[in-house]
Amino acid sequence: MKSWDNWLDEYYSSYLEFVKNRVKELCDQDKQQYTQLPFYTPHGISHFKAVEDMIHHLIPENRSEAFTIQERFYLLVSAWVHDLGMLTSTVSQVYPEKALAYSEIRNRHHLISEKFVVDHWAALGLNEQDKEPISRLCRFHSRKASIEECEEYILVGLERVKLKVLAAYLRLADALDVGSSRAPMEAYVVCLTYGIPLDIKLHWIKSRIVSGIQPNAENRNIIVQFKKPVLNGDTDSSDTEPLRKKLLSVSNLVLEDLRSELQSVSHVLTKYGPCPYLDISRTDSSIILDTQTLDDLKELVVNYDIMMNPSASKLLEMIIVSIGNILGVELHKSKVSKNIISEKPDEEVLNKLNGFLESLQNGPIQARPCHLGLKVIVDNFRKMINEKRKKEEFVRSISDCYRKHQSIRSQIRTNAQHFMEANYPGLLDKYCLNILLYGYSELVTVALCGFRDSFLKNNGIKDPQGVYNSKIEKETSKIINIYVCEGQPKTQTATGDHYVYHDGSQYALHLHRRNFSNIILIPDIIAGYIIAHHNIDFVMVGANGISSNSFWHSAGHCAIVNLVREFRRNRPVDKPNTKVILVASSEKYRPGKAQGDFAPENISVEGTENWIENSIHIVDGCEFLKVADIAVRETNWMLKDSKLLERIIESGAVFYNPLEDNIPIHNIDYMISNIGYDEINEENWKYLIDEHFAEKANIKI
After folding, report:
1. Distances from the Cα of 131 to the Cαs of 123, 135, 142, 172, 175, in angstroms?
2. Nearest-CA neighbor of 542 among 582, 502, 509?
């Protein structure tokens, strides 16, 4: 007998079992008629049961009497119907004449569940009077629905039901089902076979590394236990530490996500609930993981960075290493990679590589079209696959790519040092150097290290790179004041004012890791003020791609470059002549001209109103303006205030956030690349693109 058998009386126990059986029949029919939504973790009977069990653990028997038997029934039955909106058969009944994309089903499943309960309560075995509270619980189990909008109480006949706190416990119980039961091995392997996208693969991996969750109502704490993999003797020792670090990152991501869920409802639990949980903590248990999960964790060391890293150069490195992992080779900076890690049939390896390239084409390349260097690599390897090249040729090619990529960083650092020594020797005796940065760039950071090297050498250090992490390097870093723009267009937020990504913060932390200390984060809008009043010597930017007449990067770079050009037109004589420096590598070059201005040519002033009305794209409830073929960021960069968003939508205002800029090369003052450094003007820019990029890529303009 379970400790929670006394939660319900005989009537409600029978009622609950009747609804469960109806839900099980619905799930079985869905399995027979439809396939599960590809890639997503299962939302079926095992999940419903796990959520019901978690509710009992969150609210122990001795505290359940804070709720009426009717309220307990609503909470338990909602565990079985809250995710019905993820069933294909349910979606087809709610939207019989509309085909929803898989991602849209996932984003709207709480609303689909709500409507299904309202429209098909009888098919679920529910009484009509119960459809409203249960459907409302379906809506508010998701973070996409603000718990603040949920009614504190709802009347069902003569009974007052504490709806908001029930929704809070349901949401928390649903979020806590992240263990391996959520990603069973059979479904896990099948899903991977179909080429699971990297971002969704992370959710499966998260489920595979959690061994258990234990709420402790007395201590108001929830403990999450993670599997700590025991690596066998076959694992290269050089792989062990990166794997452990990345696994820690993934487990911390699970904790962060769960804490965010708890944070979204903790005030409700504290005010109304018998068990007000305040925090989530972790513990680890050593365990030998199954081969499939261990192999995917090794890939995740790289794939996690592919998903999360904003830097084009770092992304290129991650892709190159991923291809090397798939081919089964260790990549070396200075020699051909010959060490075979695993022997698999060539056909199997190349099929896996082709799937990976497809995922890049449909993922990072589609999301970041200005990453021309990434596209070059993907195109080259897809061409080799189409030409049916041998595996040995792929190994040689990726080895060359890796060695070239690693040497580029060293060359850029050296060239940046020589640039300062040759062009600005007077600055080396200054008390400080003021630099403004826009857009996270690894190569700009490398160039800044080169600038620091020039100061070190000016102070008598013969080998500046030989004093890494020393006191003198840290002291010299204080000479350089670095103003970092926040990169507002890239900002992504989540529920509870949580930042998914903030460009300026990530840039600042990366600079700090390279021992720069005088770092000042600024709003983008005040960059003009900083340039005019803070004696900025250089504005430095990186590039996602170089074309035959311009460089490409995220939107906002054009504004920063133009700010400098405008400032110089009316520059006071006592202010420095601020220069814009582009730092880029030859591996990011792709021939062809920029795709023209961002404004669509076929739009007249008279037609603007209709054009805007017909170009709205709705994503997660937000309305985005879609302009011709221009790539836009369809993510909410504002705080997730649902009431404010509703007012904005009601007003008719829409969001518009273009993804990328292309800036004419001759608008830049200096270029630092792995080839060298040069001053740019309107007469020599074509020659310099050829010299720095096209010629080194074996392409002539």
Report:
1. 11, 6, 18, 22, 23
2. 582
Which range of 203-212, 228-237, 281-290, 333-342 scores highest in mean pLDDT? It is 281-290
Asked if residue 166 and residue 147 are part of one domain, the reply reads yes
12 and 135 part of one domain: yes
In this structure, the answer to whether residues 127 and 112 fall within a common structural domain is: yes
Any domain includes 465: no
Q: Are 611 and 628 in contact (CB under 8 A)?
A: no
d(Cα 215, Cα 230) in Å, to the nearest integer? 27
Domain boundary among 405, 437, 465: 405
Mean pLDDT of the chain: 80
**Does the residue 684 lie in any domain?**
no
Q: Are residues 182 and 239 in the same domain?
A: yes
Task: Read off the tokens for 192.
Answer: 């991977």
Q: 349: Cβ–Cβ under 8 A, 6 or more apart, which residues?
A: 326, 327, 328, 391
| 294 and 366 fall within a common domain | no
Whether 78 shows a pLDDT value over 90: the answer reads yes
- pLDDT tens per residue, range 669-683: 999 999 999 999 999
* Residues sharing a CB contact under 8 Å with residue 263, sequence separation 6 or more, in sequence order: 496
Residue 335: pLDDT above 60?
no
From residue 502, alpha-carbon distances to 3, 66, 508, 528 in Å are 46, 42, 10, 21
Provide the residue range defining the domain that includes 146: 1-175
622 SS3 class? strand
- Kindly state whether residues 137 and 12 are assigned to the same domain: yes
Please answer whether residues 175 and 18 qualify as being in contact, where contact means their C-beta atoms are separated by less than 8 angstroms.
Answer: no
Average pLDDT of the segment spanning 395-421: 91
Which pLDDT value is given to residue 247?
73
Q: What is the pLDDT of residues 682-700, one digit of tens each?
A: 999 999 998 888 765 443 3
Report the 3 state secondary structure along 642-673. Answer: HHHHHHHHHHCCCECCECEEEEEHHHCCEEEC
98 and 85 within one domain: yes
Residue-wise pLDDT tens digits, 294-324: 665 665 555 555 555 556 777 778 788 878 8
